[in-house]
Amino acid sequence: MEAKSKKTSMLCFGVSAILLILLDQLTKQFAQRMLKGENAFSIISGVFELQYLENRGSAFGFMQGQRTLFVMMAVLMLFFIPYVYYKIPLTRHFWYLRVIATLFLSGAVGNAIDRIAYGYVIDFFYFSLIDFPIFNVADIYVTVSTFLLIVLILFYYKEEDFEQIHIFQKLKRIGNKK
Q1: What pLDDT does 128 receive?
Q2: Annotated catalytic residue: which of 24, 131, 139, 161?
Q3: Neighbours of 77 (CB within 10 A)
């Protein structure tokens, strides 16, 4: 029964990630077709607009021109996150971690696809009210998953919970050897 549940969970993980990546890519294609070379399109005047940007860096434009590094990191995530996901116990208590893993992987892969295909990431959401850096759907996935993980680590999960995820036991042992 456990093996079948793991397979079903991994299948849901894969299908969900693919759907999220497709949503990200579709919105970027829309932005490229409708916004590239055009003035910003105001959704809420003075607050929120759609503005095309080709970002050759990481989040908020840091580390410009590090395409190879970003692609290598995404490839590592492509293997590491499904492995961690597989190790997460299939209990309701760990459902949040499975969602976070799905969101994070989808964001990393969505932006990696852009870097590989174009050499840059297509960004287009802009909060002009606070002059927030322009971002995209994949960035939302990564930001939300990171924020949720921090909140859950601080207020929901305990050290004993992470001991149930065997990858973290191995990492802890490695850390203790140093």
Answers
A1: 93
A2: 139
A3: 18
